[in-house]
């Protein structure tokens, strides 16, 4: 239930994310959430999407991020899709092994709760390990 979109800066990841958000709003019955670091997507995605700016919260670690996702779900059981714009910019001290672990946990959580996760990351796909590539 995790889809990872990766590429170098300027390869169209954000444009694809916006298209997927719009499609999710049209096709899915549940609530759609989009998490981004700053306020860049405010005018690009439909107003019905719950847009969360990570800069409003102190995303310091991957552990905090996991707790934040759990809290979102606890507050709204109708979430069907969570979009995360550039996960690598969200937290300080990004360790790719921790990112892989987060993706695994999001995948398990998504399967259990029937939530899709679409995540973008600005990174060269060739540098990713198999533990992350499986979500691409």
Describe the 3D structure.
This protein has 136 residues and is of the alpha/beta class. The protein has one domain (2-133): Rossmann fold, CATH 3.40.50.300. Helices cover 38% and strands 21% of the residues. A five-stranded parallel beta sheet has the order 1-5-4-2-3. Helix 3 (96-113) links the parallel strand 4 (79-84) and strand 5 (116-122).
User: What's the mean pLDDT score?
Assistant: 92
Task: Specify the structural class.
Answer: alpha/beta
Order of helices and strands: EHEEHEHEH
Q: Given this structure, which CATH class is correct?
A: Alpha Beta
Q: What percent of residues are in strands?
A: 15-25%
Short descriptors:
136 residues, alpha/beta, Rossmann fold, 5-stranded parallel β-sheet, 38% helix
Short synopsis of the structure:
This protein is α/β, with parallel strands linked by helices.
SSE layout:
Blueprint: E1 2-7, H1 13-27, E2 31-36, E3 50-53, H2 62-75, E4 79-84, H3 96-113, E5 116-122, H4 130-133
Parallel strand pairs: 1-5, 2-3, 2-4, 4-5
